[in-house]
Amino acid sequence: MKGMDEERGAPVGRRIVLGMLGLGAAGVAVGSSLQRGVTRAFSPVNGIGDVLPAVGGFRFYSVVGTVRTPRDLRVQVDGLVGRPRGYSPAELAAMPQTRVRRDFQCVTGWRVPHVEWSGVALPDLLDAADVSPRARAVRFHSFDGTYTESLTLDQARRRDVLVATAMQGKPVSHDHGGPVRLFVAPMYGYKSLKWLGRIELTETVHPGYWENLGYDVDAWVGRSNGRDDAPT
C-alpha cells in the first residue's frame, strides 16, 4: 500500500495485504534472512515484495512516485471556516507544540516502537480557523496531488492528532512526509497523510485514497499495539 508510511510499488488489494500480516509476523520472529527470502519470492507479483513489513524500521511509500516539495509551501486551512489561512512550515514550528510518543503501526503488519512526534495539535488550528457549525468532517490533501484522507470532526479534535513538523527531535524528513505531515496517533499509518498541503473542513467524510481501494475509514489500532502516552 503506497502513501502510508512507507513504500514503493503498484497498489495492492486489501485482501492481499491482510493476508500478508502472518508473513510479516513470521519475518520478525525468525529474522531478516527469511524476510529477504520471502520478499524475493513475492516481488514479481503486484509489487507484493514492497508491502512486506521491514525488520527494524520504517518503510517508505508514495502513491505517485517522486514527490517534489513546493518552493513556497503553505498548508492551507479552508473550506467551511470563517478564517481561512495558510501556514508555512516555519510558522507551524513556531506555534505552541504538542508532543506525542506512540508506536507507529502499519496495517501491513510492521511497527516502529516509541516514535516521538511534535507539532501543532490539530484542534488548535481548527479553533484558529473558526469552524462553521455546518462542518462535520476534515479532509486532508497531500501536495503530491493524489493522496487524500479524512477524519470526522470529533476525531480531528483529539489532542493526539498532530500537524507534525518534527519527528524524534528533528524536522520531519521528506521521505517521512515532511516538511509537514499529519500524524493520527490512534489509527493505522495510512491515516497519517504525508506531504500535507491542505486541511479542508467539509460537511461529510470523504473517503481517502486508501479507503477508495477498500480500507477502513475508521482505522483504529487496538491499545495493545502501541504505547498510549498522553500528549504534552
Automatic annotation (TrEMBL):
Protein name per Swiss-Prot or TrEMBL: Oxidoreductase
Domain Oxidoreductase molybdopterin-binding span(s) in chain numbering: 69-210
One family name in Pfam for this protein: Oxidored_molyb
Superkingdom classification of source: Bacteria
UniProt organism field: Actinomadura harenae
